[in-house]
Design a protein that fits this description.
By secondary structure, the protein is of the alpha+beta class. The protein has 4 helices and 6 strands, in the order E-E-H-E-E-H-H-H-E-E. The chain starts with a strand and ends in a 9-residue tail after the last strand.
């Protein structure tokens, strides 16, 4: 596979989405202590949209039962921001573009985290 500017050329959208998924599984295992039970990644124009399910540890589930989900959201956001350089490298390698901005939220009741990466460019034309 040819590499141009750190990007693996000759890849389909599905292969690129799968590479991002695997990178995020590794990242969450290393940073958060466990990977998600389920993860879905989609690339839409200049956005990488990731939905992770079954993301809470038993201790986090206990915290949810107390009603203090805001703390979980803050911790998750801090851990993602702290790993942004690593996430940027992973997305650069997979898509050819780094992160322009990043957004995330947690629905503790559904044990779901949503992350949206806005890329510094649009890989979409490669697959049309």
């Amino acid at each position: 596979m040819n590499m141009v500017n750190g990007y693996k050329q000759s890849r389909t959208r599905g292969q690129t989405e799968a590479e991002v998924t695997q990178g995020l599984i590794r990242f969450t295992r290393e940073r958060m202590g466990r990977g998600p039970g389920d993860i879905r990644t989609r690339i839409v124009h200049d956005m990488v949209i990731v939905r992770m399910a079954d993301v809470l540890t038993p201790a986090e589930r206990a915290l949810v039962r107390t009603g203090d989900t805001e703390l979980l959201k803050q911790i998750g956001s801090k851990l993602l921001e702290g790993g942004r350089p690593e996430l940027d490298r992973m997305l650069q390698e997979a898509t050819g573009y780094g992160i322009a901005s990043m957004y995330s939220d947690l629905c503790a009741e559904r044990e779901e985290r949503l992350i949206v990466f806005v890329l510094s460019g649009d890989p979409e034309p490669r697959w049309q």
